[in-house]
Amino acid sequence: MNTTHTPKGAAFTDRFFYYSMRYKFHLLAMIAALGTSNRSASPIRSRLVTATHRMCGMNAPRSHWVGTIVLTFLLLGACAPTGYRDGAAAYHRGDYTTAIDKIKPLALEDNAAAQAMLGLMYANGHGVPQDDDLALQWYSKAAKLGQAQAQLALGLMHAEGGAVAQDDATAAAWFRAAAEQGLGQAQYNLGLSYFKGHGVQQDDSEAIIWFRKAAEQQVVGAQNNLGFMYAKARGVPQDHSQAVQWFRKAADRGYAAAEFNLATMYDNGRGVPKDDTMAATWYQRAADQGYADAQFNLGTMFELGRGLRQDPVEAVRWFRKAAETGYANAQASLGFMYERGRGVSQDDAKAANWYRKGADQGYADAQFNLGVMYENGRGVIRSYAEAAKWYSKAAEQYHRHALVNLALIYESGQGVKQDLVQAHLLFNMAAAGGDRAAARFRDQLIHRMTSKDISKAQDLARAWQLKQQN
Questions:
Q1: DSSP assignments along 188-246, one per residue
Q2: Model confidence over 299-332: pLDDT tens digits?
Q3: Fewest C-beta atoms under 10 Å: which of 19, 137, 262, 413?
Q4: So what's the pLDDT on residue 433?
Q5: CB distance 421 to 459 below 8 Å
Q6: 10 — phi, psi (to 5°)?
């Protein structure tokens, strides 16, 4: 009674992160704001899978932002002294020695743009030893003179912590200072602060305002997040057509998360006519950028033959790509393919191994399937106790099949102490979830129970149902 990775409906989650918050700060998040295309940052994820689609967080690798750093400082230097422009140009071509010679004297003369750039150089260790404390000092000098990029940099440093104490309120204050000067990335991060209630009172309406300001400056993360807000009815009435429009703006610029989100809208027929071919096309674009959710969904499309030819080998290839990133759903699906010999040679040991990887991450389908492998001795040494352990973990997440199998184990007393009351309760829980077999097993079990046990089981069932209602 194994479950498969059949896709179901879409759901959104609300995990948002600042662009550089999970990485050592090097001013890379600060610079991505001025409308340049960033193909790797990733707000909002979703997946086509056994369980649900989901859309979530923002996390962009620093290496993809290097090209935008100098662009920003060259723009800063458009009305700056010749020495600054020469220094910025030198930085752009990687001549950090010349850059520091040109920039540092201007920074010492309180040129705010030069101070901000010197902070960048200390943060990156370009032309000078890497030193977060000195980066902080130079950013602070420039920020106090009103330099917007330096204000954003300080906001990110306070949001992340390290060279300075982590402080969301101070971070939000610096984001606001830069945002009010029209800096798109700061507007974006201030929107995130309001969205998550970090350093400010949580307020979706304010988040929408700042996301929109940033989106109008072509900040792709903000465009994507506006799509999320419209899809989820956060701060605005739900409007899938508007969601699609914002996802498309960012997707057309190669923004992987938006490509993925646009695919899910086609996949589910939300805001656009349902179109498996278009869904597969956009999943492919995001998957080619290494976006694990899209890789998983694309694998599912190949496995089911939706929107493209059915091809189990291609399905396995994309499941593996996502699974190797630690993506639990893909690990479970890869286990399923090995168990059934679809797209790969049948191999129970490899199936169990991939199920275990997903199970260890708490993925209920993987936990259930690993329990089945232990109960049947496939790919592992047969063990009812291990089967019961994994069924229990999945049952705690109200996995219907796990509830039934665990109930059967309690009924038989294999691997656990026989407990007909517990078996009755588990059957009841599964039956409440729509499992007809569970209802039948429960009714059959009653004939083996004493009236006292039946009364106790019914009391437990009522208590569980009351808990569910509350």
A1: HHHHHHHHHTSSS---HHHHHHHHHHHHHTT-HHHHHHHHHHHHHTSSS---HHHHHHH
A2: 999 999 999 999 999 999 999 999 999 999 999 9
A3: 413
A4: 86
A5: no
A6: -105, 145
CATH of domain 1-260: 1.25.40.10
Amino acid of residue 374:
Y
Reported as a single tens digit per residue, the pLDDT across 270-296 is 999 999 999 999 999 999 999 999 999
The DSSP annotation for 165-194 comes to ---HHHHHHHHHHHHTTT-HHHHHHHHHHH
Q: Are 390 and 370 in contact (CB under 8 A)?
A: yes
Which structure tokens are listed for 174? 């610096």
84: amino acid identity, one letter = Y
Tokens at residue 45, please? 């994820």
The CA angle 355-328-10, to the nearest 5 degrees, is: 125
CA gap 136, 139 in Å, rounded: 5
pTM of the model: 0.80
In sequence order, which ranges of 272-345 are alpha helices (DSSP H)?
276-288, 292-304, 312-323, 328-340
Helix, strand, coil % over all residues of the chain, rounded to 5? 65, 0, 35
pLDDT band at 80 (very low <50, low <70, confident <90, very high): low
What is the CATH superfamily name and number for domain 275-397? Tetratricopeptide repeat domain (1.25.40.10)
Which part of the chain has CATH 1.25.40.10? 1-260, 275-397
